[in-house]
Amino acid sequence: MEGDGYGGYRTRLVETLQQKGIRDLAVLRAVGTVPRHLFVPESVRHRAYEDVALPIAGRQTISQPWVQARYLELAALTGRERVLEVGAGSGYQTALLAQLAEAVFAIERIPALAQSARAALEAAGVRNATVLVGDGTLGWRPFAPYDAILVAAASPEIPGPLVEQLAPDGRLIIPLGDRNSQVLTLARRVGEELRISTVADVRFVPLLGEFGFTS
Ligand code: SAH
Fold first, then answer.
1. Cα four-point dihedral sign 36, 41, 46, 48
2. Residues 4-20, buried b or exposed e (16+ Cβ, 10 A)?
3. Fewer CB within 10 Å: N-end or C-end of the chain?
4. Which positions are catalytic?
5. What share of the chain is helix, strand, coil (3-state, %, to 5)?
6. Closest Cα partner for 155 from 135, 183, 133?
7. E strand or H helix at 159, and its extent?
8. Ligand 1 midpoint to CA 161 (Å)
9. Is 135 part of any domain?
């Protein structure tokens, strides 16, 4: 979105992320392109390009850009992948993913959030992303397998259905822990094995569903 009046803010956000260690040029380019202000509520629009999490509807949050950029680096996308996102929230991460992958399926459990995410994605001109309403801990079988699965909410463990829907060599990124603190975790499918590595301490809203937190 050149010439929307926010280009300078996006450039500054990209510089901030670089200073904080984000190196992947495709990821930085996506952050420099996607109009984040379209994905946040009017009341916090003036803070859209700060590197902070912000409140969105339904007592949820749009994650901090640095965290989202780390997710995207870990996903190591080349433009050809089919990606599942669990917890679409504002739709901003969905829009970043749409820049970096071939097709994005994003699940959101709160219908009103899914609806505003769809509207924001359309306003941002994103065409290769679909927002679905449902319990993302079940994955979304009709479009499986996925080359990457990004879970944007905290879970006590990796939901089994997501492992089943991960393609060979696929990557799954999820914050694992209790409700107060989690560790951002990368799981890679190598043959029949799931190789786990931990990345950083994070704090996310809970993943509420059959294979997440049940209440
Ligand atoms: N990537 C989003 C993050 C939103 S916060 C953004 O940047 O805006 C996490 C989201 O996960 C919330 O919107 C919450 O409603 C959603 N969520 C929680 N449990 C879920 C589940 N089981 N299935 C789908 N979405 C879920």
1. negative
2. eebeebbeebbebbeee
3. C
4. 63
5. 35, 30, 35
6. 183
7. none
8. 17
9. yes
Chain-centroid distance of CA 149 in Å reads 9
In a domain, 106, yes or no: yes
What CATH number does the domain containing 83 carry? 3.40.50.150
- Counting from 1 in the atom list of ligand 1, the atom nearest the Cα of 113 is 13
Q: Which of 94, 128, 98 is nearest to 113 (CA)?
A: 94
Would you say residue 3 has pLDDT above 90? no
Q: Which of 2-11, 159-168, 174-183, 189-198 has the lowest mean pLDDT?
A: 2-11
Helix (H, G, I), strand (E, B) or coil at 44: helix
In this prediction the pTM is 0.97
Interatomic CA distance for residues 181 and 135, integer angstroms = 22
What is the CB < 6 Å shell around ligand 1?
60-63, 86-87, 89-90, 92-93, 107-110, 113, 135-137, 152-153, 205, 207-209, 212
* Residue 102 located in a structural domain: yes
Q: How far apart are CA 45 and CA 39, in angstroms?
A: 9
Q: Mind listing the pLDDT tens digit for each residue in 32-58?
A: 999 999 999 999 999 999 999 999 999
Q: Which neighbouring-strand residues pair with 40?
A: none
Q: Which domain holds residue 88?
A: 64-202
Burial 167-178 (b: 16+ CB within 10 A, else e): eeebbbbbbbbe
Is pLDDT of 192 > 90? no
In single-letter form, the type of residue at position 58 comes to G
Six-digit token string for 10:
């996006």
